[in-house]
Design a protein that fits this description.
The chain is an alpha/beta fold. It folds into 2 domains: 132 residues, HUPs (Rossmann fold); 130 residues, 3-Layer(aba) Sandwich (Rossmann fold), CATH 3.40.50.620. The chain contains 9 helices and 10 strands. Strands 3-2-1-4-5-10-9-6-7-8 form a 10-stranded mixed β-sheet, sandwiched between helices. Helix 1 links the parallel strand 1 and strand 2. Helix 8 packs parallel to helix 9. Belongs to the universal stress protein A family. This is UspA domain-containing protein. It holds the Pfam family Usp. InterPro entries: Rossmann-like_a/b/a_fold, Universal_stress_UspA, UspA.
Length: 279
């Protein structure tokens, strides 16, 4: 954890923003961090003539933030929270804010609803290019539990995702559920018959061992499923309060490729999803 870094929340006028902000508030209290609310909007160019405040976009944007700050302070005593109205395009404003944050939290309208952070280019860009963890929260996420699920690739485990998941489980006092889905072995199919190579159980145990030693108080449950990863990880998430997934470096291009597992999880997982970039 970087000293002094806030948990930043991207806020818009949709119903998913308050649940995302409340998730961030609970997380901030667990970590003794402050919450920073960001609302980005494009001011008119050239500037619009002076308008009565009820017709002024900046007035309603500021009102949105002010009301949400009050709601968070009332609901989470002791929370340190600030809000900022940023007159910039959404993607660069949030990516800049995320660079100085412990994590960035966004409300997601991913479950079958057009638009929203995920389904539009905004969500794809931020998930693909955020340099710190990005948390996607749905308005209808199931009640929180202390358990944390993490998807583990055996070919090349994402150490940053494992660190984030173990730390989250330790702070919550929950079980870490380490999930490997898809092939039974970390090797390519051509090597699957080599008896000298370890099986999935041994590879998963090796990936988790250093983190078990660093977090000896965290109970760990290992899960294997033969389903393809995009389905298997999502199907093992119910019962967890958070699903953690690693993200490899994104290839440059006009439409970032997030991978089928992240795409499926943010659409269908019944809990918040943390996407953690590989360091």
């Amino acid at each position: 954890m970087r000293m002094g870094a806030p948990i930043t929340v991207g806020v818009d006028g949709f119903a998913e923003s308050p649940p995302a902000a409340h998730w961030a508030a609970r997380e901030a209290l667990l970590r003794d961090l402050r919450v920073r609310l960001i609302h980005a909007w494009n001011p008119p160019s050239p500037p619009a003539p002076a308008l009565p405040h009820e017709d002024d976009q900046s007035y309603w944007s500021q009102r949105l933030l002010t009301d949400l700050v009050g709601e968070l302070r009332d609901t989470h005593p002791g929370l340190r929270v600030s809000a900022e109205l940023v007159p910039r395009e959404t993607v660069p404003a949030l990516l800049d804010a995320a660079r100085d944050a412990e994590m960035l939290v966004l409300g997601s309208r991913g479950r079958g609803t057009p638009g929203g952070f995920l389904l539009g280019s905004t969500g794809r860009q931020i998930l693909a290019h955020g340099v710190h963890p990005v948390i996607m929260v749905h308005a209808d996420d199931k009640p929180l539990t202390a358990d944390v699920a993490v998807g583990v690739s055996l070919r090349r485990p994402n150490e940053e995702a494992l660190r984030f998941a173990f730390d989250a489980a330790a702070r919550r006092g929950g079980v870490l559920r380490a999930v490997h889905a898809g092939t039974n072995r970390p090797e390519d199919e051509e090597a699957a018959g080599d008896e000298e190579e370890p099986g999935a159980e041994g590879a998963l145990d090796a990936a988790l061992r250093p983190w078990r030693e660093q977090y000896p108080g965290v109970p760990v449950a290992e899960a294997f499923t033969a389903e393809r990863p995009a389905l298997g990880v999502v199907h093992t998430a119910p019962g967890s309060g958070l699903l953690v997934l690693g993200r490899d470096e994104t290839e440059p291009g006009p439409v970032p490729h997030l991978g089928s597992v992240i795409h499926a999880a943010v659409h269908h997982a019944p809990c918040p999803v943390a996407v953690v970039p590989r360091g």
